[in-house]
Design a protein that fits this description.
There is one protein chain. By secondary structure, the chain is an alpha/beta fold. The protein folds into 2 domains: 57 residues; 163 residues, 3-Layer(aba) Sandwich (Rossmann fold), CATH 3.40.50.1000. It contains 9 helices and 7 strands. It has a 5-stranded parallel β-sheet with strand order 5-4-1-6-7, with helices on both faces. Helix 2 packs across helix 3. The longest helix is centred in the first third of the chain and has 46 residues. Magnesium ion binds next to loops. The site of magnesium ion (MG) has 7 residues, from loops. It comes from Spinacia oleracea (Spinach).
């Protein structure tokens, strides 16, 4: 009538294997699935940011903090900047430089020539406010992006006249010049910063107006490099614009 004790023990063992082991595996699998799902989501989020499909976003999704950390501190960011720099240089070499000093190239500064990476690391890549970032920037020198310095020097050697067009306010001029020189940049033609009458302007309008001013002075703007679409679009745009990635913020 009753099964022998050895069979009961075997059944118990089997049920233990069936019930416990699979659930433990499932638990580990879920963790990996979560990671993969986040990674996939964050790749798509990055695509939406870079294409501007995301529009005027302000906060990195919390599940992507680690993704952004990995992107910014690993090889990928350096590689993306390097490829962009080579694309820009390949184009620059095709430009017929007239030799009259009017062939121009426009560079943005923040996250283009200089990097806040040290600050982002400190804050573990969580979004912060611009006010906090400026405060930190006042106390620390921003570091150079090597791909940018290399491109900058090549552009200068090819004979372009270089303009630096930044959304930084005029009162940061001295600090900005000091930081640029410290990072290795020199011999720019003009550093253009926001004046008091620019304060309420959108970045895209402010930058377009200043490029138009350069054109009105007779400069031919062949190339432009920036990390925001507002550095590059609008009017009086360069013949070719080159965009760096920026997963930390968006400026309209
Ligand atoms: Mg910038």
């Amino acid at each position: 009538m009753y099964p022998p004790p050895s069979l009961i023990i075997l059944k118990l063992l089997l049920s233990t294997l069936l019930l416990v082991t699979p659930s433990q595996s499932l638990s580990q699998g879920n963790h990996e699935d979560d990671h993969e799902s986040s990674s996939l989501f964050c790749e798509s989020w990055r695509f939406s940011v870079e294409t501007n499909n995301a529009g005027n976003w302000s906060t990195i999704p919390s599940r992507c903090y680690e993704f952004v950390n990995h992107y910014m501190t690993g090889d990928r960011y350096v590689s993306d900047l390097g490829v962009t720099g080579r694309n820009a240089l390949d184009y620059a070499k095709t430009v017929d430089i007239a030799g009259d000093g009017m062939d121009a190239w426009v560079f943005d500064i923040d996250e283009t020539l200089l990097s806040m990476l040290a600050y982002y690391k400190l804050h573990k890549f969580r979004s912060t406010t611009l006010k906090v970032e400026v405060k930190w920037g006042l106390r620390h020198k921003l570091t150079v992006l090597p791909a940018s310095l290399s491109l900058y020097n090549e552009i200068r050697q090819l004979g372009f006249t270089v303009f630096l067009l930044t959304g930084r306010p005029e009162w940061l001029r001295n600090q900005t010049v000091t930081n640029l020189l410290y990072a290795g940049y020199n011999d720019w033609e003009r550093l253009i910063l926001r004046q008091s009458y620019d304060e309420r302007k959108k970045a895209i309008d402010y930058k377009s107006e200043n490029r138009k001013q350069l054109e009105d002075e007779g400069y031919r703007i062949h190339g432009s490099l920036g990390d925001q679409w507002s550095d590059l679009l609008g009017y009086a745009t360069a013949q070719r614009s080159f965009k760096y990635p920026n997963l930390m913020y968006y400026a309209a």
